[in-house]
């Protein structure tokens, strides 16, 4: 019998913000003495269709080589990590508390919890990019305690007539912190996350940087990502593939400015990490950024589909050292209030 069982939709192969948050919860609860399990599932369909057979073989391969276990995140040795074929209650085992972490996992968690266990639903995004509006909203009505990581997600859940608690994402201060003062950084070094998903809107980021580069030839972009781009970057773009924590921390610290142009985010983690490391933030004006990106105080904002405005905001910071320093300082102070002690205490109160 586990105290907590977290259910994830898929393998932990690549660095994903939502998976990272779940792994952090699992580690910290384990260190407090709770028995914790993390269940991953590709939710395969059992049929003779070629696609199902291919997924089934993939499931077997991962079962053998244990590649469902994250290599990019160090889970506590006492955390039980499992790989099951279907998102069904019978595969989730016995637990005092089950935690859904994405809309695809909510039904199986509700069924597994039943009347004898507690069911929680950690809502990390409005996941209409992987399910229909109807499918996603329907999960908010299950017999689960809804927990949103951001105010805007909480408002969406409440608008459907369901209760929802708010526990903001927490940040690990031991991983991301300032090692180089902003005054010593090249103002033309800009950090950006590369992600192929359309909602991450990397095309706008790259176009904005090209505009700035025309006026500031010294600009260099420090780009990182868990996926390699399928096209060549300009020579002034340095790409870092799946950097380790220490390398990513130093990458952030080498940048004076961090740019993120996402069209939607549950909570933009990379923007927070950049602020922890002392960058000045230029971010798209979306709810998932406004949890910590406050116009003129902790960031400069721009419409997500306007590379021209993004470029203008970057140039403001390149040319104004005082503003750059003020945003960096206030942003760093704000994100460092999002502690894991606070998040875990709030989480445990709901169990």
From TrEMBL:
Write one Gene Ontology MF term: glycosyltransferase activity
Question: InterPro entries from the entry?
Answer: Glyco_trans_1
Q: Does the keyword Transferase apply?
A: yes
Query: Which keywords, in A-to-Z order, does the entry hold?
Result: Plasmid, Transferase
Q: Does the keyword Lyase apply?
A: no
Every copy of the Glycosyl transferase family domain together lies at 198-332
Protein's GO biological process? lipopolysaccharide biosynthetic process
Protein name per the record: Glycosyltransferase family 1 protein
- Specify the species: Deinococcus wulumuqiensis
Could you read off the lineage of the organism from its UniProt record? Bacteria, Thermotogati, Deinococcota, Deinococci, Deinococcales
């Amino acid at each position: 019998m586990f105290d907590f069982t977290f259910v994830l939709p898929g393998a932990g192969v690549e660095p994903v913000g939502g998976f990272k948050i779940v792994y952090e919860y699992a580690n910290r609860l384990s260190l407090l003495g709770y028995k914790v399990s993390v269940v991953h599932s590709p939710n395969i369909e059992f049929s003779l269709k070629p696609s199902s057979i291919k997924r089934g073989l993939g499931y077997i391969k991962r079962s053998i080589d244990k590649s469902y276990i994250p290599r990019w995140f160090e889970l506590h040795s006492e955390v039980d990590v499992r790989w099951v074929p279907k998102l069904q209650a019978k595969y989730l085992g016995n637990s005092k508390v089950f935690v859904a972490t994405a809309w695809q996992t909510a039904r199986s968690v509700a069924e597994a919890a039943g009347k004898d266990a507690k069911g929680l639903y950690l809502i990390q995004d409005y996941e209409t990019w992987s399910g229909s509006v109807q499918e996603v909203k329907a999960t908010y009505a299950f017999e689960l305690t809804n927990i949103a990581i951001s105010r805007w997600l909480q408002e969406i859940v409440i608008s459907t007539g369901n209760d929802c608690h708010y526990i903001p994402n927490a940040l690990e201060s031991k991983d991301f912190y300032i090692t180089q003062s902003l005054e010593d950084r090249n103002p033309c070094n800009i950090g950006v996350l590369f992600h192929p998903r359309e909602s991450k809107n990397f095309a706008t980021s790259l176009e904005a940087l090209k505009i700035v580069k025309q006026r500031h030839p010294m600009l260099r972009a420090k780009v990182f990502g868990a996926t390699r781009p399928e096209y060549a970057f300009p020579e002034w773009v340095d790409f870092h593939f799946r950097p380790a924590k220490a390398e990513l921390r130093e990458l952030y610290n080498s940048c004076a400015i961090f740019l993120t142009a996402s069209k939607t985010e549950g909570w933009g983690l990379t923007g927070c990490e950049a602020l922890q490391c002392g960058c000045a933030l230029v971010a798209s004006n979306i709810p998932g950024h406004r949890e910590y990106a406050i116009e003129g105080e902790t960031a400069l904002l721009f419409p997500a589909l306007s590379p021209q405005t993004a470029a203008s905001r970057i140039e403001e910071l390149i040319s104004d050292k005082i503003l750059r320093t003020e945003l960096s300082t206030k942003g760093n102070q704000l994100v460092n209030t999002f502690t894991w002690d606070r998040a875990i205490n709030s989480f445990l109160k709901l169990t």
